[in-house]
Amino acid sequence: MFVDSHCHIDFEDLAARGDALFDTMREAGVSHALCAGVSIERLPGVFALAETHPNVFCSVGVHPEHTEGEDPSAERLAELARHPKAVAIGETGLDYYWHKDQPEWQRERFRRHIRAAKLCGKPLIVHTREAAADTLRLMREEGADQVGGVMHCFTEDWATAQVALALNFYVSFSGVVTFKNALQIKDVASRVPLERLLIETDAPYLAPAPYRGKLNQPAYVPHVAAEIARLRRIPVDEVARASSENFFRLFTGARR
Ligand code: NI
To answer: What are phi and psi of 60, to 5 degrees?
Structure first.
């Protein structure tokens, strides 16, 4: 069985599929999924999915891209994360690709999320894009290693992965690892210790080959595992077993 450790099945295109999405997921051998929160406004929809589906967990956070909507305090985030299916704080982090001016509010928001994770004792789901050095610096300064977490949709180099691993973080690979030109990511995916590796779709985005460019869904996460298995020259079952065990070890609030 596979676990999709990060997706956005509350987004319209996927939510519109209703139960069919979960049927397809089950048929593909994907037992659980974590629906990552991206804003406070969308949280009711995320919670509703987690409440209706025993195999769906969720997280509470405001995505670093978002400029509009509520920008909650650490206390408010921690309070919202008391929801029984909320197993993490995030997704949070830094994104200098969408915000090339590298605004201070992004770093301040990220710090608040790390503090929230420490307040509620839940791990972090970290997004980083063109901002690896600052992301790691803030994680270090705020003591993110005390709660740990995951570097989601990892697209950085091995040196960055090593620092994240040393900070008590897991590394999660998305469909990007299946892309032909993603040599750096393939390299990292072959080197991360198996007991610290997660798999995800980040659906509806970043569908793995052979679905690249199409609408992504949790049922496609076995394609991510298959590519990692190929790179590491191990059976795909081993990647499935290890990444699923890792998921439940990291997200202690998630029950099988
Ligand atoms: Ni995401």
So the answer is: -120, 120
